[in-house]
Amino acid sequence: FIHFYAGICSALKLTVPSHTVHGIEGQPLHLSVDYNFNATASEIQIIWLFERSQSNPEYLIGSVNQGVVPDLEYQHKFTLIPPNASLRINPLHLSDEGNYIVKVNVRGNGTIAASQKIQVAVDVPVTKPTVHTEPSSGVVEYIGNITLKCTVDRGTRVVYQWMKNGQCLHAGPNYTFS
After folding, report:
1. Which of 123, 132, 162, 169 has its C-alpha lying 20 to 30 A from 58's C-alpha?
2. Low-confidence ranges of the chain (pLDDT < 70)
3. Cα-Cα-Cα-Cα dihedral of 51, 52, 54, 56, to 10°?
4. What domain count does the chain have?
5. Residues 79, 145 share a domain
6. Are the CB atoms for 86 and 103 separated by under 8 Å?
7. Range of the domain at 90
């Protein structure tokens, strides 16, 4: 009996992205899911859940055969077009960062099920940088120091790199970075 049950379970294969999926705030994001099974199906159910860190998964949208059942709170944000199990999120917000869980149930001779988790990270585009000079005149003769301060108003995973005449600057006797 146990061997038979294990064979039934492996009959449903669910394929999702294996790496973290990065989306851009305000843009749509497509979570691609493929599934296949080697059984006769009378009913196919797809369920999507969302899990933030330290919280229980919450229901987003699901389908049974061709009928879609959205959570009314999110009905305009998430799209599922069965029998495709892929999920479209539009628009993407910072609060959408977390784990998305897809579960597929196939009813035929018995019920086979599989679920997978997709990690989503939301990136905020970096705004144009602003550079402030101290002293504000930008003029220093011979011995004085000049400070260039670069800031951006918004953006995730910001990396700063200073260059002079197209060459990267590195810390040394003439340059210090903070």
Report:
1. 123
2. 1-10, 138, 140, 142
3. -30
4. 2
5. no
6. no
7. 13-123
Residues 115 and 154 in one domain: no
Whole-model pTM? 0.75
- The amino acid at residue 119 is Q
CA distances to 64, 98, 177, 178 from 127, rounded to whole Å, are 43, 24, 21, 20
Query: Could you tell me whether strands 34-37 and 12-15 are parallel, antiparallel, or unpaired per DSSP bridges?
Result: antiparallel
- Nearest CA to 122 among 152, 79, 154, 151? 154
pLDDT in tens, 36-51: 988 788 899 999 999 9
* 154 neighbors 134 (Cβ within 8 angstroms): no
Cα separation, 152 vs 75, whole angstroms: 35
Q: Tokens at residue 148, please?
A: 């260039």
* Cβ-based burial of 41 (10 A; exposed 0-12, middle 13-18, buried ≥19): middle
Pairing of strands 111-123, 21-24: parallel
Residues 113 and 159 in one domain: no
Tokens 């997709």 found at: 118
Which residues fall within 8 angstroms of residue 48, CB to CB, at 6 or more apart? 59, 60, 61, 62, 78, 80, 87, 100, 101, 102, 103
